[in-house]
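Entry for the shared binder. Reason: the reviewer on the internal report wants the predicted structure included alongside the sequence.
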Amino acid sequence: MDGNSEYLEIVEEEIAQFHGAETGLITASGFEANLAIFAAIPCKEDAIIYDELVHASTHDGMQQTQASYRIPFRHNNVDSFRDALLSVYDSQPLIRQGKRCVIVAVESFYSMDGDICPLKELTEAAREIFPCGNAQFLVDEAHSTGVVGPKGAGLVCELGLEREVAIRLHTFGKALASAGGMVEDLEYFVQEGDPDRAIAIILGNNTLKTTLTNLARPVIYTTAPAFPMIAAARSAYILLKTNQTQSAQEHVQVLIKHFFKTINSNPIWEEATKQGILDVPLSSDWEDRPFMSPIVPIWTKPRYSYWLVFHLNIRKFCAFPVEYPTVPKGQSRVRLAFHANNTEHQVEQLVCAISDWAKEMMEIEAGRGSGDKIPRAARQVYACMGEEIVNGF
């Protein structure tokens, strides 16, 4: 309700111009941005089609939307997406006639799976089934900002789809590190801050901005972000514009490729994956991809995710287990995020640590070794936890 300023509007326009958009609206967080979009933009007769793995803020936003028809499609599956479009086309006459819209919600890089949206194929399918152009895309670029695209402008710009995407959401707490960051407490691979605690910008046309400003409760009933946060975001974009981040952007890609190459060539890896100890789905066919996401999940068995995290933490790597309900039941994983200040040597140390843990777990499952059913690192952590309970701290 207050806090807007000339400086804020200048920064909004600068960022919009950088991404090739007409205008932008800065919000207090990425979470609030998604709430605002879904509360204000879809009308009652509109439909929302969304990837089944979109962020929690998208799901919360859809709970507040007026759109009466919502349908998911299988993750990154173009055929399933086409089926969802056809379902809307067949069942919603106003949309079929081009009088109402389909809002398609996807992410550029998916935060828990690390894979990349087949955005070009999705837009082609939407244009084919709805030639009137009333299938409009909302792309959450939280994890691609600063990582891919010209000067780090994101996936939409990388693919040249600026005119095909109606709404883009960029947050400033990931690669830009202007808010929402986390202190580097352990040595390597620090988990980045929550993008939804950092300020963000919604990009689109002037009609979109006017609608959000006047109808979106998360925009109306709040104050503008503080000056230091806006200035930090602007400073980050100055670095992008002047190519001062290009070498870092390229180095991240080198690190991820080195990780895949090193872990696939490790002698323990093939047998560990066969036994289901762990898996890195993104390590398959990585050579064929033009660019990578900095997010690499390591899939494990239930409970094993905690044991792997304990092992990595003791080896001075910062990692966190990801469990239900953040991911579906039975899909436990450990999430890694590669950073530009990491080195190839650190990547090799990481692979060594993961492989040592996998070897230990294979021995435990085979009944070899000391006979313990719990790996060494986990035993150390549980012992520390026991001491804390006994000593009361």
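Summary line for the report: Residues 248 and 341 are 8 Å apart (CA to CA).
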